[in-house]
Amino acid sequence: MTSDDIEIRHLTKRYRGGAYDRPALQDIDLEIPHRRFVSLIGPSGCGKSTLLRVMAGLTVPDHGRVSLFGRTPREMCRRKAIGLVPQTPALLPWLNVRQNIALPTLVNRRRGTSHESTDDLLRAVGLEDSAHRYPHQLSGGMSQRVAIARALGLRPDVLLMDEPFSALDEFTREALRMQLLELWQRRATTVVFVTHSVHEAVVLSDRIVVMSARPGRIHDVLDVDLPRPREREVVSDSRTHEVEGRVRASLRSAWSSGINPTELVAP
Amino acid sequence: MNTEVIGPSATATPPDPERAPTERRFRGRSVFHPFVWLPTTVLLLILGAGWTAVAEAHPYILPRLGEVGRTLLENPALFLGNAWATLSIALTGVAVGAVSAFVLAVLMSEVPVVRRALMPIAVVLNVTPVVAITPALVVAFGFGMAPKVIVTAIITFFPVLINVTTGLSSVPPTVLQVFQTLNASRWEVLLRLRLPGSLPYTLAALRVVLPLSVVGAVVAEFVAAGSSGGLGTMIRNSASTARLDFVYAAVTCLAAMGLTMLALVTAIEHRVLFWHESRRHSSG
What we know:
The complex is a heterodimer.
Chain A: E1 6-13, E2 25-32, E3 37-41, H1 48-55, E4 63-68, H2 73-78, E5 82-85, H3 97-106, H4 118-124, H5 140-152, E6 158-162, H6 170-187, E7 190-195, H7 198-204, E8 207-212, E9 217-223, H8 232-235, H9 238-258
Parallel strand pairs in A: 3-7, 3-8, 5-6, 6-7
Antiparallel strand pairs in A: 1-2, 1-4, 8-9
Helix pairs in contact in A: 3-5, 7-9
Chain B: H1 34-57, H2 65-74, H3 76-110, H4 112-127, H5 134-141, H6 145-168, H7 173-181, H8 186-223, H9 231-240, H10 244-272, H11 277-280
């Protein structure tokens, strides 16, 4: 065991009063190597978002241990070492783009971590011309870029992304994926990315964790051996399609293993 | 528990971020366009004609409009002085009621015990017709400003309390999660998230409560009509001597007062809430 990785051991999380009283997460064991891009994918209800929230210190597990580079999630929060990009951009509507990006530096100031300059961040996400606009003047894609810049600003050890592109149209998604890849390749932080898009997981990740539902378990871990940096050509490569095929096959078996035949009959 | 919210409706869905703000149908048409002012003007003329017809036939039901206008113009100092007396009661009452409600709302949102202790009492206070205790307050505090300010403060208290409480808890969970992963303190969450987020609700409460404060002040003056002036006192005294022109002149002053307050809140909303959904289409 090294403290250089993210390690999750015997993690179980149960929501009281949930349907069937099955754990949302059962006995999860997972290792995420330092500076890798890892996607969590699976059918709805497989607990991938819950797993992300546990890593972010927002949800306390019932059993098990989560170690982010040798520290607990709450310790990481205190050090401002976690960058969170939620499903919705979650920007403050009364702050403009620049102020939203700079927000993390204003909160929990005692922890004076180093941070990227706001100008650099604005340039990195291509919003230098929109610095003074307010969230209601931005498109969905622009808002999510602001959220990503805000999360990257503190040079976090781990970037946790919860289906960040799911509300966007396909063209915007594609553009944001490429931009995220570029941002990540420059910064080389560890990314845990929750998605329900197979293509997205393959294009972005080094490793794909396939989860099954009811109870939420890890079904399979697939390595993506596509070359980096991944340009647009790689994205439409036949090898990409081959990996996508493997992920889809794995998801199919995860789906059939996760559902008890009796549950398919309406009660 | 009855938690009726006024203002930015909690049920309104946030606008689709991908869609450009829809053009307002009548956008660009100024107040001077007949489309805007004509319907109201026609209606006012009809109502005025009806009023005049009644006033000519039965001067003890309605005074002539010309008389009301003349009364106003001939006694400007009298009306201004009494209006100021009523206004100062209303504003003092709002200041006391709204500020204490705001502080209590913040306390309630931060300390659950305070919320559980206060909420039932506040609800009971709200359903009690507070003007009914005015005579008792006059007995206790005399004919000065105190009982009138107290009544006004109590009337304005509840809408502010409920609205600010709702506003403070209307923080989107995802934003809160971002703050939690930054290990923001409760104070930081309050200052940077909850308080600015509650601003639309606070201003919506003021929109209701400022005109309400005039109602409170006038009713208190009816009951405690004493040495001090005020439009309420004036209305009561004029009515008892059947001077309807004075009554309606005073009512006109009250309406003007309410309109000014509303215009003031609207101006503040326009300036401060440029980011909020309620302002989005109306700001140019």
